[in-house]
Amino acid sequence: MGATIAKAYTNDALTQSSIKLQAQSMPAFNGDPHKWQTWKKRARATIGSAGYLNILDQENYAERNRMKNETVFHLLQNATVEGHAAHLVDQFESERDGRAAYQALCAWYEGDKQKNSTAEDIRVKLDNNVLSTKKSASQFINEFKTYNQQLKDLGEAYTTSKIVSIFLEKITDPDYEHVVELCLAQNSTIEECIQQVRSKKRRLDRHNSKSRRKPLSLRRTSGSDEEDKIKNIMGNEESEYLTDNGYYSIPRHMWNKLDDEEKRRIKAHNASLRKKRKRTDEGQGQYISHRRLAGSTTDHQQSENVKKKRTVEFQDDGEQTDHRKQNVDEEKEVTSRRNEILKFNMKDT
After folding, report:
1. How many CB atoms lie within 10 A of CB 164?
2. I want to staple 53 with a disulfide (CB 3.0 to 4.6 A). Which of 48, 91, 254, 343 is the partner?
3. Would you call 11 helix, strand, or coil by DSSP?
């Protein structure tokens, strides 16, 4: 008896854990009629993985299992809480009847009026889906298959011949013209038509990929002046892009049009020239350094001559000073004699 109770408790615990996990993965539904069928499939898969799918499909089972039915209600309420379908589920909140909430959603989105309106909207989208130069083949095919499947889910699918006709009529890209003709000639099914378009897309992608890898010189228009200038950049000693120092200086708008090989050659040329000039400058620097060391005695003699010159100049200044002093003394002596003569004459008078 105790073992049976323990086993039942363990199963309930595992079930509750599974429900929590499923509640986190339950897809949200915003109430968009076009997304109803997709959401319905995902919701049923989520609830079914928890072992509660019978709640949705069997009324008697839902009545006998009130806890499971209530759990399903909470899952549906959580999924629709932020959408336009919330009112359909919330009306059963008092009794927490998950099956009744699910049936209300199905009646609303799968009723004749709603279904016809939704089908008409999907047909408009299908008609506006065109494979042109502005839309890729992959996008065109994905949207076409989505809309076609939605019509099937609503029970409003086109006939086999009609859907093929619509698919081929919506291909207007000239690159796929041969594919359309081939499908019509072979009376292909819709899957065969889709496969032909995908094959053509892969061939175009490979071709475009090879074209992008071609050197730039192969894609230039012949006869242009700029093309001739680009061709004559390298290997021409009189190139207008050679500087006086021998470097290549290319304008940006022309540099961007060169291929990788041409750019590499120009960079290698300039780098090689810089290395040569660097070695030359270093050699000249060593030569000058040795030459100065060899002439160091001369530099010393020049320094001594400068010192002597300064000494001579100082001595000359001294001699000039002595001469000035001598002149002043002579003037004083002459003045003194003159004064004595004047005094003597005054006495005689």
Report:
1. 20
2. 48
3. helix
Q: In a 10 Å sphere around its CB, with 0-12 CB exposed, 13-18 middle and 19+ buried, how is residue 98 labelled?
A: buried
54-92: pLDDT as tens digits: 999 999 999 999 999 999 999 999 999 988 899 999 999
Which residues have a Cβ under 8 Å from the Cβ of 314 and sit 6 or more positions away?
none
For 133-158, the DSSP string reads TTS-HHHHHHHHHHHHHHHHHTT-PP
Which are the contacts of 98, defined by CB distance < 8 A and separation ≥ 6? 55, 56, 62, 68, 69, 70, 71, 72, 73, 74, 75, 76, 92
pLDDT, residue 9, reads: 44
pTM across the whole model: 0.45
Structure tokens at 240: 């207008």
pLDDT at 281 over 70: no
Q: Check if the beta carbon of residue 153 is closer than 8 Å to that of residue 110.
A: no
Q: Where are the domains of the chain?
A: 2-110, 115-208, 252-289
Place of tokens 């074209």: 211
CB contact at 8 A, 146 and 138: no
Which of 138, 137, 136, 105 shows the shortest CA–CA distance to 35?
A: 105
d(CA 143, CA 135): 11
Residues 180 and 340: their CA atoms lie apart, in Å, by 146
- The upper half-sphere exposure of residue 58, i.e. CA atoms within 13 Å in the direction of its Cβ, equals 10
Residues linked to residue 248 through DSSP beta bridges, in sequence order: 242
Task: Look at residues 158, 157, 221, 160 and name the one whose alpha carbon lies nearest to residue 190.
Answer: 160
- DSSP letter, residue 34: G
